[in-house]
């Protein structure tokens, strides 16, 4: 019989709806039930494309004996971390503080007052590799709760007090709130060079994650300073990822991370946020260098998002699973993506199979499990016939399409769709792909129709065109505003900038502290044991620095002093962290580059159908000035303040390049405009 999760909309929660565990969603009633029964809460946090979440679900939550133990002695609460990042952040901080590490599934035991007292991540069904079994953990917690309740309460109280004492606002209040200067960004670049893997690209060792936000910083730093070191690190990393197994060489798009330092073997889940961020980064790399590889990867990644992740309502689904049926009914990680030499021969025949094995690095030994290989792209450019390779790829794609496909988490997350809107709008504009721009517009329209209420407050998720009952967090407002501002620049439709302004006003009213720091949750959101506040990047830009970037861009379009001031106050945290941990505040460093450059404000005025207007607009979008904003409109347009009082020049379309609304002499030629946008 289905449990309470059957009434939820999250695909992750629905995966557990038929468990024998008597699950509750996160809600006040669950904690009231724990209080009524006098039992602790077992909180399990994960997400639908998490491999080890599936493993623990199969081993423990689908097990009748384990379910009996949970149902009798605990109230079990299941949370989708993508739906409730606030709940995830608060308890993950506790897990990391207590154990020194974190991950998913996250397992936390709470008092009925939601105070944590015991932590872990994955627990096996039997003792293994130094880990106790999950039943042992449950029995141990049950015993402590029954026999040492006062001690448990004291531990929980100390943990909550410790978390409360970690207030970032309090610690930053003692420091300098000024935004970083050029010397701070130079120090951040130097720190990145120490972590840079000069052999394989990227930063640090295994596992290796795509450094999307750091790539944006490096490209903007190069644009402002002409630093060759910054550009070389960006190019080497982007090429290594594009040639590695982390990139889907047949279908486009990136996996979540590589388990090794060489980008060879990925963790195969494909997330919307990674692909949106990397699509945009590769498009910006092409803009800076003209790289054919960067262009191909940007376009293929955009095509992947539109083909594989777009929903019927026009939004973008969250993720594709790492696991899929291997053809025998068994779910195996990577089964959809890997190949053996024999499989190549079955599809291509002996002659072309040899070519494919050479081109994609498929060997008899394999690079993955059971002799299978993850397709890579060794440096064979120019050594094989391009038409023949394209034929090989088409046949392999067709064969792969006949394999059982990975599951899709089809909930639409506002923040990640905002990132996709920005990436698709810009990639479409750069490469003359109006279908990408239309896809970005459709997603933006869904965010307004379904996710936004009449007070311009955002719901974080939707599914099948129905908004979830969860409030947007800071990253939702910031990333949606970022996407809408990019869409306004590409389409010239000022209404998107107006919506962005509404969301950013909500940030100023409901997410800002008096000292200018930002919280991840609104002041009227559900109160947890601590109000989360994290300026560091994770897989996506932190809500804090994403908001700073959107505030800065909006101020440049409108001349709003309060939005500019708020952006600069928010960037104070980059001064504190940039030199010490640049890998974890890359977006804040990128936004700071824009602030130091102005950012440049480019107003393009002219009749919409005039080729000269289009040429100026394209030159403006292709300018590499960090964080430059572009406004496009007919003469006399006042919808966006940057366009106000910008006449034609001798009856010809013109572009005005400004900083802080102080403009240089207008230009009428795209070449001259391009010169104006260089360092």
Give your account of this protein's structure:
With 679 residues, the chain is of the alpha+beta class. 49% of the residues lie in helices and 10% in strands. The strands form five sheets. Strands 1-3-2-4-5 form a five-stranded mixed β-sheet, with helices on both faces. Strands 8-9-12-13-14 form a five-stranded antiparallel β-sheet. Strands 16-15-17-18 form a four-stranded mixed β-sheet, with helices on both faces. The chain starts with 10 loop residues before the first helix and ends with a helix.
Secondary structure blueprint with pairings:
Layout: H1 11-14, E1 24-25, H2 28-37, E2 41-46, H3 51-61, H4 64-73, E3 75-80, H5 85-99, E4 106-110, E5 116-120, H6 134-147, H7 149-164, H8 168-173, H9 182-195, H10 212-225, H11 228-243, E6 257-258, E7 266-267, E8 270-271, H12 272-289, H13 292-309, E9 317-320, E10 323-325, E11 331-333, H14 341-360, H15 386-401, E12 408-413, H16 414-430, H17 434-451, E13 461-463, E14 466-467, H18 474-491, H19 495-511, H20 543-558, H21 561-570, H22 572-577, H23 586-597, E15 601-605, H24 611-621, E16 629-633, E17 654-659, E18 662-663, H25 670-676
Parallel strand pairs: 1-3, 2-3, 15-16
Antiparallel strand pairs: 2-4, 4-5, 6-7, 8-9, 9-12, 10-11, 12-13, 13-14, 15-17, 17-18
């Amino acid at each position: 019989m289905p449990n309470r999760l059957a009434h939820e909309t999250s695909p992750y929660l629905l995966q557990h709806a038929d468990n024998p565990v008597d699950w509750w969603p996160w809600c006040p009633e669950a904690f009231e039930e724990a209080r009524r029964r006098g039992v602790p809460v077992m909180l399990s946090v994960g997400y639908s494309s998490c491999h080890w979440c599936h493993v623990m679900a199969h081993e423990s939550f689908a097990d009748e004996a384990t379910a009996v133990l949970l149902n009798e002695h605990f109230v079990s609460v299941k949370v989708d971390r993508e739906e409730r990042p606030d709940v995830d952040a608060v308890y993950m901080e506790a897990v990391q503080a207590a154990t020194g590490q974190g991950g998913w599934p996250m397992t936390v035991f709470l008092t009925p007052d939601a105070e944590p007292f015991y932590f872990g991540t994955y627990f096996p069904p039997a003792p293994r590799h130094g880990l106790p079994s999950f039943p042992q953990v449950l029995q141990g917690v049950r015993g402590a709760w029954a026999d040492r309740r006062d001690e448990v309460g004291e531990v929980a109280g100390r943990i909550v007090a410790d978390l409360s004492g970690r207030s970032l606002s309090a610690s930053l209040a003692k420091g300098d709130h000024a935004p970083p200067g050029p010397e701070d960004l130079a120090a951040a670049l130097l720190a990145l060079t120490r972590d840079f893997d000069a052999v394989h690209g990227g930063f640090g060792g295994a596992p290796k994650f795509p450094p999307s936000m750091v790539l944006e910083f490096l490209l903007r730093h190069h644009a402002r300073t002409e630093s060759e070191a910054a550009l070389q690190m960006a190019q080497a990393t982007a090429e290594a990822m594009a040639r590695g197994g982390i990139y889907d060489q047949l279908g486009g798009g990136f996996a979540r991370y590589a388990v090794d330092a060489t980008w060879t073997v990925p963790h195969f889940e494909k997330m919307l946020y990674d692909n949106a961020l990397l699509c945009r980064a590769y498009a910006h790399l092409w803009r800076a260098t003209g790289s054919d590889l960067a262009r191909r990867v940007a376009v293929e990644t955009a095509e992947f998002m539109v083909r594989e992740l777009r929903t019927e309502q026009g939004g973008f689904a969250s993720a594709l699973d790492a696991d899929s049926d291997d053809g025998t009914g068994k779910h195996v990680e990577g089964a959809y993506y890997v190949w053996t030499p024999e499989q190549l021969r079955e599809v291509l025949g002996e002659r072309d199979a040899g070519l494919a094995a050479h081109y994609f690095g498929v060997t008899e030994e394999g690079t993955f499990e059971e002799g299978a290989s993850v397709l890579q792209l060794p440096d064979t450019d120019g050594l094989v016939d391009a038409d023949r390779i394209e034929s090989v790829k088409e046949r392999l794609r067709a064969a792969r399409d006949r394999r059982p496909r990975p599951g899709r988490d089809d909930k639409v997350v506002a923040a990640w769709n905002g990132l996709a809107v920005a990436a698709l709008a810009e990639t479409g504009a750069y490469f003359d792909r109006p279908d990408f721009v239309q896809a970005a517009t459709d997603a933006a329209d869904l965010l307004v129709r379904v996710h936004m209420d009449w007070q311009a407050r955002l719901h974080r998720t939707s599914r099948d065109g129905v908004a979830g009952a969860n409030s947007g967090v800071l990253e939702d407002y910031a990333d949606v505003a970022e996407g809408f501002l990019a869409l306004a620049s590409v389409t010239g439709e000022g209404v998107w900038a107006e919506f962005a302004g509404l969301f950013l006003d909500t940030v100023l009213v409901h997410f800002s502290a008096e000292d200018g720091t930002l919280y991840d949750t609104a002041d009227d959101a559900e109160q947890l044991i601590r109000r989360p506040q994290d300026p560091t990047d994770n897989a996506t830009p932190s809500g804090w620095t994403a908001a700073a970037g959107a505030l800065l861009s909006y101020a440049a379009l409108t001349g709003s002093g309060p939005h500019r001031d708020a952006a600069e106050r928010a960037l104070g945290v980059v001064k504190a962290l940039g030199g010490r941990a640049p890998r974890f505040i890359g977006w804040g460093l990128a936004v700071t580059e824009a602030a130091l450059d102005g950012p440049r404000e480019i107003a393009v005025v002219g009749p919409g159908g005039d080729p000269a207007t289009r040429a100026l607009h394209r030159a403006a979008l292709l300018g590499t000035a960090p964080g430059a904003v572009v406004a496009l409109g007919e003469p006399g347009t006042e919808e966006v303040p940057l366009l106000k009082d910008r006449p034609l020049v001798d009856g010809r379309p013109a572009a005005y390049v400004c900083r802080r609304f102080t403009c240089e002499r207008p230009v009428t030629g795209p070449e001259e405009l391009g010169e104006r946008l260089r360092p």
